[in-house]
# Entry
Amino acid sequence: MNVLRVATISTLTLILILNVFAQTQPTTPKEAIKSMHASGPFDVKVTAQDDNSSDPLLNRMTLDKQYHGDLEATGIGQMLTAGTEVKGSGAYVAIEKVTGRLKDHSGSFVLQHSGTMNQNVPQLTITVVPDSGTGQLKGLTGKMNINIAADGKHSYEIDYTLPDN
# Structure
């Protein structure tokens, strides 16, 4: 077979696959989506776990949070951290399950944290894990920001969407 014929067959196969995929998608209109914002303070307790690591720069911790304000909930999670030899640089990842009430919706959802510190300059992404919402929070999507004041007090802001039920 020559190259042109193989490319044509590959293109036709891809078109057929895409057509079959498109035909299997639901044709009902999507539910209306509400975009919302929530904020408030939270308390956090971080507990180091003895994981018998031979490297002091690698650590594992548990998270225990109490959210207040628009999000009245508890959060429990696991966090992995990595320090570096450069003071003010490192990283962490965490998974946190939040259970309670987000404004007038109750249920639970999971947050995925990914943070880095580059010589004291933080970069943090906290995302609602897709399809993790339960109860009245089913279908929840969004991103959270954490603020830490000079006095050490923590607060959150979450921009989120929920299907209109």
